[in-house]
Amino acid sequence: MTPEEITSQLDGAIDDWYESQRTAAGVNRNVMAVGLIMCEHMATHFPLEEARWFTGTQVSLLGGPRISRILGRHGEHRQFASEGGRTSRGSQELARSFQDAVNASPAASEFAGAGDDASADVIGVLQAAMVERIQMDFFDRQRLRIEYRRHEPTRAVIQQMLDEAGNRGGNATGAVAQHLVGAALCLRHPATEIENHSYTTADEQTGRSGDFVVNEAALHVTTAPGEALMRKCARNLAHDVFPIVLTLREKTAAAEGLAGNFQIADLLIVKGIVEFVADGVDEAAEYRPGQVASRLRDLLELYNSRVASVEPDPSLKVEIPNNLG
Fold first, then answer.
1. What DSSP character marks residue 49?
2. Domain ranges in the chain?
């Protein structure tokens, strides 16, 4: 077998083992941790032998720091677990079933006879595949996690949400930004109905002048302002609609420059998403420090409600800190 074929066969056995642990609630985090660590044991001895990875009381190496290092090697730095379930009887049984699965693979003898360099390459690919499973079944299903510290300004919490979304990649930042702005508008204009659409719904599909329309203003929420956006803003102005561009703080200068290229720089507002949302919370709290936490909770509850109504991905919701309000 070629190294690629060995890798494919072993990963198939691991995938069958992993999927056999899936329930209606998903895959338990302990399954993921055991999978990572048992791949690590495969690098030191193979076929796997229980006497080599089981100390008599726990699965060797199965701990939070080791798991974090493996995840980090593959570019994943989000917190997975502080402990890895070393003494859990369930972890021991999972490790035994993992051992049975890979030892029985048609590629087992080929892998056992591979050289050190080839073995290291195979292990790297197997662990990378396990990291992808963890990202799909754990990280991408977790709500956004933030902390609230009373001495910090409101914008710090909003920035945390965007940073957390950015760590997920894909369209998460744009989706979170859009629904944060929608929630902030609800907070600012409680008597006005603020439309709610999924992030992937284009303005043209709904006939909207922007992502949100409030009276005669069209608000455009974007993480990457470009010429197409400026053409929308120019059309807004041609129809007596006031355009407001909300973008990431580091993109505001670029948006203003583009507006200048279209000769509309003095006819629209460009503002950071974080500042816009945070200002809405502070205004609703009437700038009273004692009220900010309560209004921030209101914002996050509105945000979660709006996400739940239109987005199929529950991981876009935020875990609201217990010390809010």
1. -
2. 3-141, 144-319
